[in-house]
Amino acid sequence: MPAAASERRLSTAEERRETVLRTAIGAFAARGYYGTTTGEVAKSAGISQAYVYRLFPDKEALFLAVVEHSFARVRERFADGVAEAKGSTPEAVLSAMGDAYAHLISEESTLLLVQMHAQCAAISEPSVREVFQRGVARTVEYVRGVSGGSEEQVQRFFATGMLCHLVMATRADDVDAPWARTLSNGIRHY
């Protein structure tokens, strides 16, 4: 038996689950909850659809895992921002987290798309709404806790984040028009 064949290591279920999750992020980002099939995810991940169902009981469970993953990535990047803050005032911490988030959505555009698709699906899908609410709640409480910001400061932080989504979705920073300048004024892009 050749050395390479004897050293081959099979993936664990957890490694396959991570592979499917990473693949699903791209698929759901491109086509949303309703437009993505588990068959497409399986094909992209290089596994059978049956194996996807061994890892996730259905498409809904897979999408919910993707949504939870997106919130975890945001909180990780917020923590990076806190560590890089140029002070401990709420303004300094919120600014650093905002900058970290702007970098995140420019580096991982699929994450922004997943968040936007999840927000839309939450309107009509109770299970998505529940996971989305839980993710938002944990994120708001995290931001409030690490920043020490007031209710108004935390609300403004999230409102600016939603405005960032709008600017990115409309590509307002690339449009030379009064409405676009109004929306993108002061919004950080990378």
Topology overview:
Blueprint: H1 3-7, H2 13-35, H3 38-45, H4 49-55, H5 59-84, H6 90-107, H7 109-124, H8 126-147, H9 151-170, H10 178-184
Give me a quick take on this structure.
With 190 residues, the protein is mainly α. 80% of the residues lie in helices and 0% in strands. α2 (13-35) packs across α5 (59-84).
Summarize the amount of helix as a percent range.
over 70%
Output mean pLDDT.
92
Order of helices and strands: HHHHHHHHHH
Q: Nearest-angstrom radius of gyration? A: 19 Å
Envelope shape: globular
How many strands in all? Answer: 0
Which stretches are low in confidence, meaning pLDDT under 50 for 5 or more residues running?
none
Strand content: under 5%
